[in-house]
Amino acid sequence: MAKAIVMQRTGGPEVMEYVDVEVGAPGPGQARVRHEAIGVNFIDVYFRSGLYPQPLPNGLGMEGAGVVEAVGPDVTHVRVGDRVVYAGHPNGAYCEVRNMPAAILVRLPDAISFETGAAMMLQGLTVQYLFNRTVKLQKGDTILFHAAAGGVGLIACQWARALGVHMIGTVGSDAKAGLARAHGCAEVINYKTEDVAARVLELTEGKKVSVVYDSIGKDTFGASLDCLRPLGTMVSFGSASGQVPPFNLNELASRGSLFITRPTLFAYAASRPELEAMSGELFAMVTSGAVKVDVRQRYNLAEAAEMHRALEARETVGSSVLLP
């Protein structure tokens, strides 16, 4: 038997139950992984609350790091004893041990710890595709990135600095502003005390930005569009404040023929070659020191509900992990 977080219904953090589960032998195409650390991301809240539907009962968590204990038939790219990391479907990472699709497992370099591996995959791969594929950023570009002191945001600050990109970040406190600056954010706006669109106009001397990266959703969408220069791109990749409400496409025309996209990591990493290439680039950024993954919150697996309460209250900074 192994411990796991299981949901019988959707709702608040209280729906997560810490229970014993049976873990058998891995089936065809599967591997059994014993977790050393488990990543926590806001998408987990979406599944727990029901914003993103899934069959019930079910587990939570899309990211983890650990050691392969067994492999099923037809699995050749990982072996027993391998250190591995992953970010992907199906949910169920909030556990000590699990059988899972081996196709999403990637070998973790010895130079990267399990905690770092668990905390970096979903967030780091997100930054990789946002900056290199959704929009191919170039040295000298100016961008706006919301939630710059969050887990994704702090990786984005460092990645932007490494690329020579001028990143303007938004945060909700002076303490978070200092953290974003320390990680390489060129300019920081406190959205609780400053008008974001007006401040972007000032910081860019009226030119605005070429790309806005927005994981907040409903609360920031209108201001994000206001920050874009003509032919700029709005990248909406999350809904922390709620879903973006319906809007008239003419809004894009009236602001200067703007582009808009709603990407997901899983579309960009859909094939094994894409996943390995993206992971390799992330590992290189981390092992070189260009990107340091800032794990600020550590909770025991049994405390997953407390972790979610802190996450939803925006009390967290950097990355968070659960320890089995």
UniProtKB/TrEMBL annotation:
Name of a matching Pfam family: ADH_zinc_N
Source superkingdom: Bacteria
Keywords: NADP, Oxidoreductase
Keyword Flavoprotein set for record: no
Coiled-coil portions: none
Keyword Lipoprotein: no
Start and end residues of each Enoyl reductase (ER) domain: 11-322
MF-aspect GO terms: mRNA 3'-UTR AU-rich region binding; NADPH binding; quinone reductase (NADPH) activity; zinc ion binding
Protein name listed in UniProt: Quinone oxidoreductase
The species this protein was found in: Massilia glaciei
Lineage: Bacteria, Pseudomonadati, Pseudomonadota, Betaproteobacteria, Burkholderiales
